[in-house]
User: Fold these one by one.
Assistant:
Number 1:
Amino acid sequence: LDFTATFGETVTVTGTPRVSLTIGSTSRNADYLSGSGSSALVFRHTVLAGDADTDGLAVSSPVALNSGTIKDAAGNDAALTFTAPSTAGVKVDTTAPTITSVTVPAAATYRTSQSLTFTVNLSENVTVNTVGGVPSLSLTIGSTARSAAYESRDGTTALTFSYVITAGELDTDGIVVASPLVLNSGTIRDEAGNDLVLTFTAPGASTVLVDAVAPTITGVSKPADASYRAGQNLDFTLTFSESVAVVTTGGQPFLAVTVGSTSRQAGYSSGNGTSALVF
């Protein structure tokens, strides 16, 4: 933080005079840096970790000589009092933003092409820069490492990350979210430029399941060998690789059958919720 004290004439400085500051409720000093032999002296305070001032630091008169001197060419001591400038807009923030929690998708089983959306909640507003790369959230689906990419809500305390499920993925005991957040050469910073602390406490996600594996027909059982007459049923059982649900609201599934040279349909009869459907 550089402050420039302008005098009515050229002055010479010895030692290290200083300007008194108040940052938050803490007294600090801006020490003489340069300008001896001119009418403008620069005083500098280097911000310390832990300094914080959200409503503007304060500068106090007079300049303290601190065993130094400020004199003009004739040897006259400079008047050290001054009217303090308005510093309401000069704020200090050395506190890095942190991840307070990660919200996982609603409890459900998700399938191919559905999105898993995660919300990373932060301690303060941040800005995300994706020019160098897109930040991501690390996931494990089944035994496979995946990444949910940053999606939106720059400038807020809640960042959205999303992953689209691909065919073949399976997780029956809940996906895992892992710390830390990965920048991928992007940046996430608060208004003052403090980098986000990327580590967080991973949430329990055991209720977020993934099943992007399509069920397959593993076998078809035909009716017993015999001659069937009018009114008798020909029952075919289709066995699937897993339990399936049958929805007949839009129409009834059927199995194509050719009797003699005539096309017929064996309509779905029973088995909903199991791995064996009867037609």
Note: The CA atoms of residues 96 and 193 lie 9 Å apart.
Number 2:
Amino acid sequence: MERTYISQLNEYIGKKVRVRGRVDTIRDQGKIIFLVLRDKSGKVQTVSWSGGNIEVFNTVKGLVPESVVDITGLVKKAKQVASGYEIEIQEIKIDSVSKTPLPIVIEQPYSKNISNLDKRIDYRWIDLRSERNSLMMSVATEMGNSFREFCINNRCIEIQAPSIIGSSSEGGSEVFEVKYFDKKAYLSQSPQLHKQMGIAADLDRVFSIGPAFRAEKSFTTRHLTEYTSFDVELGYIDSFKEVCKFEQEMIKYTLKNIKEKYGEEIKKVFDLEIKVPQGDFPYITVKDIKEKLAKAGIPSKDDGDFSPEEERAISEIMEKETGCEFVFVYDYPHKKRAFYHMKDSNKPPLALGFDLFWKGIEITSGSQREHRYENIKENAKERGISEESLNEYFEYFEYGCPPHGGFAIGTERFLMQLLDYSSILETTYSPNTPNRLGKLINIGKKETTK
């Protein structure tokens, strides 16, 4: 008999079905045992009597929660059950017995997990069994699918950028060095250089989804050493604001799809209403928002960057003024941006780039790129990056390259903001951080870098 998912059982009342999943809870009332079974689609109460099949009854009696079972039985109406039905167990097979007790407490609906976060992540495969985290993974799937679908619908070509590259993709020292046979190589900080290769290859518009690596010893709620980056690059643009517009519409499309598919479940499980923005996101310059922050009494980190406190205040101020949760901040000092950002020809100290803030955190960095051969080499030189280390990259522009620009979204950070999780570790399938490689590792005292 084929398996029936629990969410489909209302179509099988009065019929025999086969359900498979985990033992969620067991209530032993002597001559009758209620076993609540859980699968990816929901939960169902099953029941066994001592006056029925005694072998089945004894098997059920010996079970422990989180064991995996295969049940065949009759779906019967049951007014006392919230769903209106239950399964009378006729056959049961134990696929796997769980060790007891569990190392962590699986999160319950409408309550905070009482297990320590580090320990929960150490036992991530158990932590992900919760209703909350299971829904989070489904939402993450829809999020990635909607990003990708929007790009394809808007004439983008998907590329697969390599994770091992011959030179640093961003410059600087925050790279993981790896041995590549007898040569030195690096784990890619982003697919940036290969996105631009796609523009030089006349693919016109490209996107990529894949791992990115940052060798930063940042112990915060928003940083990972390995994350999944969704990147877009658009050719033949006239302004970085065309890139902003593309991202804006992609986000609105994605939030609309998530709300339609999971909005009610998210409201039930997370007590959260998904807001789909209407109209355009507001824009503000770095100078102007710094002035607003100063008036609000928020201390400034420096003229070209924002502290976590400033980021939270930016969103609060702009949402109060505009009613929108999102805001594009632009006119950053070029010296604070990546070398491949184009300088503003009217204000050379400034870059033609932007950051997108959402609910107190920067979720995107983007810009119009420098596509002119001599200019991109000069930008790298100003950063102290050797020309030799980027020779292969410079070749993309030596043979002609259209004007272009793009952006990148860290998918785990986007998901964290979407569902109001408190840490990016909770929205990462198996997070790596400076003190974690799957499991927690001991590398000495934690730092508090922001």
Note: The chain is about 30% helix and 25% strand.
Number 3:
Amino acid sequence: MNDLEWFKEHLAQLREKYASKLVAILNGEIIAVGDDLEEVARIIERKKRAGEIKGTPYTGRVGDDIAAVHIPSVYV
């Protein structure tokens, strides 16, 4: 299962805990949560520099519908 599918499958649980937040998911794990892209990008960059993560996470806003915003890279 890719990270977008994971996001969709877990959207109900994400809404309960992270409503209106941006979440970054990598390999089925939430690796960053924040109010805006800048905050999430800082967390992801810090974890990449520390060697904690590799790859590009799926980043989407947890909203009331399934139409999430996907940001394919923190380097937008």
Note: Helices lie at 3-9, 11-18, 37-49.
